[in-house]
Design a protein that fits this description.
Elements: H1 2-39, E1 53-59, E2 65-71, E3 74-77, H2 87-98, E4 102-107, E5 122-128, E6 133-141, E7 147-152, E8 155-163, H3 165-169, H4 181-214
Antiparallel strand pairs: 1-2, 1-5, 2-3, 4-8, 5-6, 6-7, 7-8
């Protein structure tokens, strides 16, 4: 009887060891797959870096067209040439449009209406320093995945799903890019002048009152 119990215990222990070994192998496999996925670089919808961009042109959902061109290291607006641009904000736009990864692609996409691409809501065109252009037509957002659909380079057979952050960036109007730091400086100077004048007046009045009282 004791021998049977001992064999049973050994069998249970062996089964536990097998299960633990299998679990360890599964964990290691998943960990390796995760590390491999992390090292694979995600394809970008625009295969450029921000400093390679010469111009950015886009049309918002409201129909406003903006174009920014880099001239001697400074961003200028061809659509609003009199506007002084906030260089940091336009630089952030350049980084955003070149940092938008492709979540997945839909081959042989079929009818474009289902993606909002028969009549795109927005358009984006980015040109590099060598004059090469990448054009996007941008459609609707998938309410479940929160990805936005777009076409690239006029190819209507493949639909790309990318981050909705792209549409957020392209919702900005020219007013959002205006550099108002000069106005802020003028206001500060004006405010300082008012304080100085007011202070001088108070000192003068106070001094006159003291003189009168002394007399």
């Amino acid at each position: 009887m004791n021998g049977k119990k001992k064999m049973k215990r050994l069998a249970i222990a062996a089964a536990v060891v097998v299960l633990l070994t299998c679990a360890l192998l599964i964990v290691r496999k998943k960990s390796a797959e995760y590390e491999e996925a992390q090292t694979v670089q995600k394809e970008m919808i625009i295969d450029l870096t921000a400093d390679q961009i010469k111009s950015i042109r886009y049309t918002t959902e409201l129909g406003e067209t903006l174009e920014f061109v880099k001239v001697e290291g400074q961003w200028t607006s061809t659509t609003n040439p009199d506007v002084k641009l906030d260089q940091t904000k336009v630089g952030t736009l350049a980084s955003s449009v070149t940092g938008c990864g492709i979540a997945h692609t839909i081959e042989n996409a079929g009818a474009l209406e289902q993606y909002g691409l028969a009549e795109p809501l927005m358009t984006l065109s980015v040109t590099d320093m060598d004059g090469n252009e990448t054009a996007l037509d941008i459609g609707i957002t998938n309410e479940q995945t929160l990805d936005v659909y777009c076409l690239r380079g006029g190819d209507q057979s493949t639909v790309y799903a990318v981050s909705t952050g792209l549409t957020v960036d392209l919702a900005w109007t020219i007013e959002d890019y205006i550099d108002d730091s000069e106005d802020g400086t003028d206001s500060a100077v004006s405010g300082a002048e008012e304080i100085a004048v007011s202070g001088a007046e108070e000192i003068a009045v106070s001094g006159a009152e003291e003189t009168a009282a002394g007399n």
